[in-house]
Structure of Glutaminase:
Amino acid sequence: MQAPEDLKPLLEEILQDALTITDGKVADYIPALAEVDREHCALTVATLDGKITSVGDSTTVYSIQSISKIFGLMMAMERIGDELWQRVQMEPSGQPFNSIVQLEWEKGIPRNPMINAGAILVSDVLVSHYSTSKSALLNMVRSLCNNEGILADSRVHESEKSHGSRNSALAYLMKSFGNINSDVTEVLDHYFWQCSLTLSTEDLARGLAFLANRGVCPRSGEKITSHRDAQRINALLSTSGMYDQSGEFAFTVGLPAKSGVGGGMVAIVPDYGVISAWSPPLNSYGNPARAMAMIRNFANRLGLSVY
Amino acid sequence: MQAPEDLKPLLEEILQDALTITDGKVADYIPALAEVDREHCALTVATLDGKITSVGDSTTVYSIQSISKIFGLMMAMERIGDELWQRVQMEPSGQPFNSIVQLEWEKGIPRNPMINAGAILVSDVLVSHYSTSKSALLNMVRSLCNNEGILADSRVHESEKSHGSRNSALAYLMKSFGNINSDVTEVLDHYFWQCSLTLSTEDLARGLAFLANRGVCPRSGEKITSHRDAQRINALLSTSGMYDQSGEFAFTVGLPAKSGVGGGMVAIVPDYGVISAWSPPLNSYGNPARAMAMIRNFANRLGLSVY
Amino acid sequence: MQAPEDLKPLLEEILQDALTITDGKVADYIPALAEVDREHCALTVATLDGKITSVGDSTTVYSIQSISKIFGLMMAMERIGDELWQRVQMEPSGQPFNSIVQLEWEKGIPRNPMINAGAILVSDVLVSHYSTSKSALLNMVRSLCNNEGILADSRVHESEKSHGSRNSALAYLMKSFGNINSDVTEVLDHYFWQCSLTLSTEDLARGLAFLANRGVCPRSGEKITSHRDAQRINALLSTSGMYDQSGEFAFTVGLPAKSGVGGGMVAIVPDYGVISAWSPPLNSYGNPARAMAMIRNFANRLGLSVY
Amino acid sequence: MQAPEDLKPLLEEILQDALTITDGKVADYIPALAEVDREHCALTVATLDGKITSVGDSTTVYSIQSISKIFGLMMAMERIGDELWQRVQMEPSGQPFNSIVQLEWEKGIPRNPMINAGAILVSDVLVSHYSTSKSALLNMVRSLCNNEGILADSRVHESEKSHGSRNSALAYLMKSFGNINSDVTEVLDHYFWQCSLTLSTEDLARGLAFLANRGVCPRSGEKITSHRDAQRINALLSTSGMYDQSGEFAFTVGLPAKSGVGGGMVAIVPDYGVISAWSPPLNSYGNPARAMAMIRNFANRLGLSVY
């Protein structure tokens, strides 16, 4: 199918369809997330010609949670290069995102940077290599999204810290295997802070467009990363971006994607653009039910699978 | 990079490079495989315009082993449709290809059709739905490859049967969970037979071209499967086709691919063609070291990643 | 508490108490077991002075199932000595009795001879070292119990064979690690046959008295095994005889014991005698609820813990 | 064999035999333990008639490490009774003592109080129920051992804290399942402190004599715990006291026992006394090689198995 000139009517139809999905459960492990209105719903498509089309609450910011793993990973890859892959693998995990079992079997080497253990390890890299890892990351995100107003939500940040026992367990286990260099408390602080960044679907669509554009920001023309590294990040998102539904999402949609428990989700369409969606209720895998449905429907309607 | 008019010099160069790789170990769990000359090496590229370019032993047949899982899966998908996915998942396993641990945890439902348990389950589907599952599969393979001379190697077949204790364990465990319907002995006989099919790199390049061509055989124009199912098979190959190196292969190459312990390997390049390689010595993951290197080099030289 | 001269009133009281336990589920994985009347209940105590005191259906025979593992183990220990412990460990498993997970981790070496994998391995020893392993075992059991009428139940035997997929999986997995020497089918046939032996609570109390009497049969004065080997078998029963309740049974009762899914159970009281009970309904761990309660009450009333 | 009037010559012979064992490795995960002279060796037997017979360095104090789990457990059992068993099981683990895998599977409920996770949970009970849990425990130990000079080694305590990442991981994982009530840092501080207590073999032989004497201190006649609870603790030591060698120790010796990585070990002989040994080098299971050999030899020579 040819992409229509004006995507808005299609996006509107897809959003209305998604609103008929009424099951799913808003993340409630911390109060700050549980209070978010479950009816928020947004869908944005940014194409490489610079057009941004949105429907719903596309300028409302939300807690991007695990989607932030993409930004952290990219910074760590730029900073230490292939050395990173001595400390974290690139294989799908076949286990829940916060599994500690696999981490013990594999002697503290996380399966990939998209599961919690892997992203905590990436946080250790950032904390160890930047004097102020938070502001370095924030500056990068603001610049990519072309939005100086992007902030972390300090209430979510504090709340994560006080409910982060399992992530603490993951970090201490890696430390016991010698795979965390900095102070565990500082590493976790960075990790929780990163998860608490708040962006809108439009911010994210703009901010990740370089992954669809061979590493180059389509707005500024700036080279953010190499074509090769953009492909590598997309490969990781394809095999490991959607938790325990990564295989199913590849099978039914076929696009690199990442979700977060705040209800956000992004999919990268190489040489086309970014699809960015948000709706808080999560399915049993911890993926946002409506957001995933909207992205699947858009991709299927336009035949956007990479395979 | 633009694909050159004549691929032969490039393939020749890549094959010569691969010959410098001297480690790796020929599969020796059965005598019939152990006796194969480790110096065999072949590389074939079939493009959708009908051209087939080869270097090395590209017309010598070898035991395709796990590559046969693609043919079995396609037949089962055509025969019982989405019902198949009630009995086998589509997620990466994160475990060795013959792991029995995960099969117990997940109550006899294999993780995907590319690991042994999944392919044995597919064999059960074929045995249960075809009066003569072997000849049905053989006819399909011969037709796809346009080669009526394709045969199974009866010595390999018998040898597999008498060394198949672990696969028997997988089959009986699935049976104990009620996920095998036919007689276990018959199911395993089909499975081992299928693994013992012998094809050349040219046969395989021709036979799988429909996966790169939206389900249509580029030679005959016949629709082998739907575009959607071709994409779905490619997605499974991308997340699960290369055993415990699937993530790494996606990361470093980015193409749907499948390997076998006979030393064969194929990669699908959507809308371009098929890369087919063979060289017996296996690396520590059970993937053919030279064949994988040849495919990676060709893909990288031409920039063929789907991501 | 001093043991009373006449145990009968105490046993009667304990049996009546046990009849108030009404939950539990008769084993139903094979029809021949499912049809047993759930109301059967028997309790026998054999003391080393030769007295046998019984209440309930103490002369009715039942399928002893896993209790037969004691006889098989003793025969194998006598036959091949400490060589046995190269092929099976002596550690508690911490896993369900039919777990295949641990067997894979530990490369086909079962955790102990009281779990299914371990007893199948013991069966392989017997099949490999006796020309007619079944009649050799049967003769030993008849002699120990002083009852030439003891038989296997051929209906249970056949039924086990046709529902034994999981045990087949365990056997083939051990075979794949090179830890089964004889033909798997023959080994499983011996194992299922052994499980189908039918004895009464009185038979078992008599037959296992040597374990409470330092290896010597208190009736005949014959030395069945060394004192040391009697202690070793009792140690195995203490750490591993009651499936996933072994620790709890040691904690609450403190006697070497073994149960079977036919509802039978025996406990050894060193230098005192044997407690033998039967009642078909099983608790959630697969242990016979009433039989276990009767043994616990008798032991607690007489203060019989070894600890 | 009758116990000889004077045990000293036998103990001397056993100690000399043990000195011929030269392999094993002193615990070196913290400097304070690594520096201990590996040649220390001591053996003490305390019988219930009040006699204490020793050979070797039996008055030199050492870090009792995991042996302290017995004291902590007893205090928690006295304090909260059977409520404790809602939060920790009593089953053998079948896993290494510091395994985090099982703890995840079983949702934060440790397998038994003798593995690290279980002892950390016990520490949480003590910290939550005593205003000053350390001094309460210390007073109890001093009183049991009749030695007001007993102390914790502050250097070992600090060292454990700074090398305790894996124990931190266990504690945070339990916390994430809601099975730790107090502050994790405080709980771990108690746990590490308890492990750093220093006693001699004579102190321990004296201090644990009540477990061999039905709960009553044989010196003072004071009832320390009920007969039943003494039996229950002995049962736990029998099934779980010797890490991954618990089954083997039951099989070859047959006594309730506990070891520590400081090289200490105790065995309880009900109605006879306590065997207490110390020698720093550890075998591959983390059990003290010489101490275990001395206890095994003494028990075998006197035929002291409980089975």
In short: Chain A is about 45% helix and 10% strand. Chain A has two domains: 8-60+200-302, 67-195. Residues 63 and 198 of chain A are 4 Å apart (CA to CA). The first strand of chain A starts at residue 42 and ends at 47.
